Amino acid sequence: MKSLFAILFIFMLQTFSAQKDHDTYANGIFSFEENKAQKIFTDNTRIRQLPDVASPVLDSLNTNQDILIIKKEDSILKLGERAANWYKVSYQKEGKMSEGYVWGGNLCVDYRNKNGYDFLFGLTKTVKIKDGQFKDEEVQQNRAGVKMIKENILIDEVSFETGSGESLNYGTFNVESGHKLKNVELTLKATVSGEACGIPSYDQYILLKDKKLITLPQLINVGDADVYYHSEQFIFPNDKGGVSNTIIFKMEEMEKDENDREKKKYATKFYVWDGSSFNIK
C-alpha cells in the first residue's frame, strides 16, 4: 500500500511539474525568427538530438558560431530567470553541415560587426544579490554580457545586471559613435526592457578604447502610469548641452502623494573622461 501511495505521489508531482513547465512563458528577448541567421553566445553550447535537456548531445558549438534558425519549437526550458524556446538549427562545422536542437538562452540577443570586430550581446546566467530595500533578503537578477571577437578569438568581454525575467520582454544592441570622447573608438549600447508598468528597463553603455571594453554606470528607467517615474540619462559631449570629454548623468524622479500632488527630485553628476578612465567631478 505504501508503494502505491509513493507511486501516486510521484505521478502527481510529475504532472504538476509538467503543468508548471507548460505554463512557463518564454522571455520575448529570446524570440528568434525562423529561416534567419543567428550566432551562438554561450561558449561550448550543446546541440541536442531532441528539444529536451535530457536528450543526447550531438555536438557543441563555440561563441560566434554562425547558425540558421530552422524552426521554433513549442517546448520551453527555464533556467533561473531565463526562459526560452528550443530551436532546430543548422550549421557548418569543419566543412560539414549538421542539424540539431539548441536552447534559445544560449544564443545572442543581438550582434553587430564594426571595424573588423564582432560584438555579441547575450544573457549569461541568473545570480542572487542582496535586495536594495531589504538587506537581509536576496533577489534573483540576470547577468548579461557583451563580447568583442576578432577572427573567432575573444578580445575582451564585460558583464552587467539586467534585472529579473520581467525585464526581458525585448532587447536592443547598437553601435554608436565615439561621442567625441578622447581616444574612444566607438560606443556600444545594450538595452533590455519589460512591457508592463513598474517593470524597469536597463541601458548599458560601453566604451571601446585600445581593444578594451569599459562599462559606464548603468541607467535604469521605470514608471507606473502617471503616479510615479524614475528616469536616468547620459548627455555626451556631442549632444546638445554636452561638455568636452565629460559625460553628464541626469536623474529625474516624480511621485504623487495622497493628494495627487507631484513631488519631483533631480540629480546631476559629471563623469570626466581623461582618455583612459573617468572620474566623478
UniProtKB/TrEMBL annotation:
This protein's name: SH3 domain-containing protein
Organism per entry: Chryseobacterium taichungense
